[in-house]
């Protein structure tokens, strides 16, 4: 299976480009150069972690601060993308009281941007973690308040965050019955399509250049039908988000390929927004809503960590083999996040698991061009093979950045 996936990755991802070096109009022949990759075009990321949010805002001391710094160090070694929390109930627990949380998030966004990461906001419209004070409003007021909230967040963070999960889990949204909430109320009243249109229109108006996603854990035909209906209605969706929380066991290559094939038919980029593979015992298969599984202790194990490492390699290779996949996000980066699960690539003490090491070997090893000495031929040319992304060429005192892109077969570099 690895060989088949590697062949698909080679065919669908890797580019072969002839570089021609020119200096003052003359070909740079028979010269040694150093070429190295600086960044993947494909986005590899993880979610933020509350410890990172607290650290960047100076709220940690002692061991907690050390753990946060370790987490950040391991994060930046492997990832170029981060998903940050814009849960409405946390951003604005009391109506019109959002300045403090907004500033805390802004500090974290700026830190990640300074360290070369693409930042995504998650989510703008979601029935879960919608503020309780919405229930004091009528449906018209809830919708107006939601759309103002969307435009506020996108406007405040424009240029810093240009990728957003606009609406999260809309398949279940109008029939959600765990507790009353304002978003389910208006989704039930308006219908999914009308609400999705309103949220995407508000987001698009606030930042026409933003990449706007629909996102769901429901990978059934219901999600496909909803996407079809949205596109038929003229809603401008930029990418399809797919959650893959595999607390009950790895999907396997065959199932993942089938899912990719089903959602690739829309011709839109696919973002795997929330990937979970646990390194402890698996959640019982009879659990329908993952949130129902509440345990006091869910520990990582040596056996589970070895299983997780094997599965993470297969899952990432499967995703990367499909050219429509543009972003892959792990959830949670360290143990003890959602459901207290051992879902991290790092343990609670921020030591890396075998899965972290295996993924690092893929992203920054097998799929990465380390500093490589090359020599131009008589025509001032050299052939470079690599993944799309940002590169740098060094010759003498000259450092020249350049980009590799799919369907690019030649590039002239002026020194």
Please characterize this protein's 3D structure:
This protein has 415 residues and is of the alpha/beta class. It has 2 domains: 2-38 and 369-414, Immunoglobulin-like (Sandwich), CATH 2.60.40.10; 42-353, Alpha-Beta Barrel (TIM Barrel). 37% of the residues lie in helices and 24% in strands. It has helices at 2-12, 50-56, 62-78, 88-91, 99-114, 139-156, 182-190, 192-206, 221-232, 253-264, 302-320, 354-366, and strands at 15-23, 26-27, 32-40, 43-47, 81-85, 118-122, 163-168, 211-216, 239-246, 270-277, 325-330, 372-375, 381-386, 389-395, 398-404, 410-414. The strands form 3 sheets. Strands 4-5-6-7-8-9-10-11 form an 8-stranded parallel β-barrel, surrounded by 4 helices. Strands 1, 2, 13 and 16 form a 4-stranded mixed sheet that branches. Strands 12-3-14-15 form a 4-stranded antiparallel sheet, with no helix packed on it. Strand 14 (389-395) and strand 15 (398-404) form a beta hairpin. The mean pLDDT is 97.
Overview in brief:
It is an enzyme of class 3 (hydrolase). By secondary structure, the chain is an alpha/beta fold. The chain is 37% helix and 24% strand.
List keywords for this structure.
four-stranded mixed beta sheet, TIM Barrel, eight-stranded parallel beta barrel, alpha/beta, globular, Immunoglobulin-like, 2 domains, 415 residues, 24% strand
């Amino acid at each position: 299976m690895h060989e088949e996936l590697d062949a698909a990755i080679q065919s669908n991802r890797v580019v072969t480009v002839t570089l021609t070096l020119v200096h003052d109009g003359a070909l740079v022949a028979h010269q040694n150069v150093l070429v190295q990759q600086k960044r993947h075009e494909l986005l590899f990321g993880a979610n933020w972690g509350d410890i990172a949010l607290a650290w960047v805002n100076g709220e940690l001391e002692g061991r907690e601060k050390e753990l946060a710094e370790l987490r950040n160090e391991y994060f930046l070694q492997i990832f170029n993308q981060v998903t940050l929390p814009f849960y409405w109930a946390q951003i604005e627990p009391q109506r019109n009281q959002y300045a403090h949380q907004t500033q805390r998030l802004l500090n974290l966004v700026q830190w990640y941007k300074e360290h070369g990461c693409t930042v995504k906001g998650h989510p703008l419209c979601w029935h879960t973690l919608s503020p309780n004070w919405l229930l004091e409003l009528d449906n018209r007021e809830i919708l107006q308040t939601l759309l103002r909230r969307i435009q506020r967040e996108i406007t405040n963070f424009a240029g810093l965050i240009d990728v957003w999960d606009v609406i999260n889990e809309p398949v279940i949204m109008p029939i959600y019955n765990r507790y009353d909430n304002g978003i389910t109320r208006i989704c039930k009243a308006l219908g999914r399509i009308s609400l999705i249109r309103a949220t995407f229109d508000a987001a698009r108006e606030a930042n026409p250049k933003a990449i706007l996603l629909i996102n769901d854990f429901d990978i059934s035909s219901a999600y496909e039908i909803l996407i079809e209906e949205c596109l038929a209605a003229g809603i401008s969706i930029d990418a399809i988000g797919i959650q893959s929380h595999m607390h009950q066991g790895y999907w396997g290559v065959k199932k993942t390929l089938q899912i990719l094939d089903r959602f690739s038919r829309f011709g839109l980029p696919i973002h795997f927004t929330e990937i979970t593979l646990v390194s402890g015992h698996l959640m019982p298969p009879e659990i329908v809503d993952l949130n129902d599984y509440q345990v006091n202790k869910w520990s990582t194990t040596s056996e589970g960590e070895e299983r997780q490492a094997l599965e993470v390699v297969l899952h990432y290779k499967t995703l990367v083999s499909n050219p429509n996949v543009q972003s892959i996000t792990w959830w949670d980066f360290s143990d003890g996040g959602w459901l207290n699960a051992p879902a991290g690539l790092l343990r609670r003490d921020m030591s890396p698991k075998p899965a972290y090491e295996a993924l690092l070997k893929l992203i920054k090893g097998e799929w990465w061009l380390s500093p490589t000495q090359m020599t131009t031929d008589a025509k001032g040319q050299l052939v470079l093979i690599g993944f799309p992304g940002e590169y740098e060429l060094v010759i003498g005192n000259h450092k020249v950045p350049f980009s590799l892109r799919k369907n690019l077969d030649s590039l002239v570099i002026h020194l």
